[in-house]
Amino acid sequence: MKQFLTPALLGAALLLSGCQTAYYGAMEQVGYHKRDIMVDRVKDAKESQEDAQKQFSSALEEMKALLNHDGGDLEKAYNKAKDEYDAAQSAADDVSSRINKVEDVAEALFDEWQTEIGEISKADLRSKSQVKLRETRRNYDSLIRSMRKAESKMPPILTSMKDNMLYLKHNLNAQTIGAIKGEFSSLQTDISGLIKEMNRSIAESNKFIAAMEAAK
Questions:
Q1: Residue 196 in contact with residue 33, Cβ under 8 Å?
Q2: In whole angstroms, what is the distance from residue 185 CA to residue 63 CA?
Q3: What Cα–Cα distance (Å) separates residue 181 from each residue in 13, 80, 106, 138?
Q4: Gap between the Cα atoms of 209 and 42, Å rounded
Q5: Cα-Cα-Cα-Cα dihedral of 33, 103, 42, 126, to 10°?
Q6: What confidence category does residue 17 fall into, taking pLDDT thresholds of 50, 70 and 90?
Q7: pLDDT of 46-69, one tens digit each?
Q8: What confidence category does residue 22 fall into, taking pLDDT thresholds of 50, 70 and 90?
Q9: Closest CA to 137 of 107, 166, 161
Q10: Do residues 135 and 215 make contact, with C-beta atoms less than 8 angstroms apart?
């Protein structure tokens, strides 16, 4: 049964997090194994993608409001759109960071699993464990490909947003706004594609989490 981490143990684990091997070892001592960490990190990555979906959609809406601006404080509308762009960039960074953490624990888990299989003396048990490892690895490979594919769609969108925001910043007037309206349709299409790709990745995450939890 898992033990709850006391503040002291949690603090010690966090101090060790710079060295992942030591970190995993410390967590295992309190009953929190690599597969548990992996499931939690996949959940975190999934949640970060859900947050990014919302943030990119919000950024799109603020840009739309700016491009359709018909009076009032133009600079205020620009600042709102800029804030949403900045938040979208932050959300994208968080997605990448969390995917990296999934990859890190997955590598540690699979290496440990393969090593321990070699320590099983009975051939039939060793074979069954090897089959389970291959199956889990296959599921993981599908998951990480899906996550990375969705992640890869964010930088081009952010670049387009940044280009438009900088262009507007230098000449914030109705004529400048009109000049970039033609690019907005393409941006809408790109964000729609990103959200669909993230939905596929989120579905893969849910499937992987369910399989890992069922195997406990």
A1: no
A2: 11
A3: 51, 18, 44, 44
A4: 7
A5: -50
A6: very low
A7: 999 999 999 999 999 998 888 887
A8: confident
A9: 107
A10: no
Token pair in block for residue 68: 């359709």
Global pTM reads 0.85
d(CA 126, CA 15): 36
For 156-213, the pLDDT digits (tens) are: 999 999 998 888 888 888 788 888 887 788 888 999 999 999 999 999 999 999 999 9
Instruction: Indicate the SS3 state at residue 5.
Output: coil
Q: Is the dihedral of CA 198, 145, 99, 137 positive or negative?
A: positive
Which residue type is seen at 114? Answer: Q
Query: Is the alpha carbon torsion for 138, 144, 150, 152 positive or negative?
Result: negative
Q: Provide long-range contacts, Cβ within 8 A and 24+ apart, for 132-139.
A: 132/215, 136/110, 136/211, 136/212, 136/215, 137/110, 139/207, 139/208, 139/211
pLDDT tens profile 79-103: 999 999 999 999 999 999 999 999 9
Residue 199: how many other CB atoms lie within 10 Å? 14
Distance in angstroms between the alpha carbons of the first and the last residue of the chain: 11
Q: Could you tell me if 21 and 37 are in contact, meaning their C-beta atoms sit under 8 angstroms apart?
A: no
- What is the percent of the chain where pLDDT is above 70? 90
Residues counted in the chain: 216
Q: What is the dihedral of CA 100, 204, 114, 103, to 10 degrees?
A: 0
Q: Which structure tokens are listed for 140?
A: 């993981």
Q: Which two tokens stand for residue 114?
A: 């393969």
The alpha carbon of residue 215 and the mean position of all alpha carbons in its chain are separated, in whole angstroms, by 24
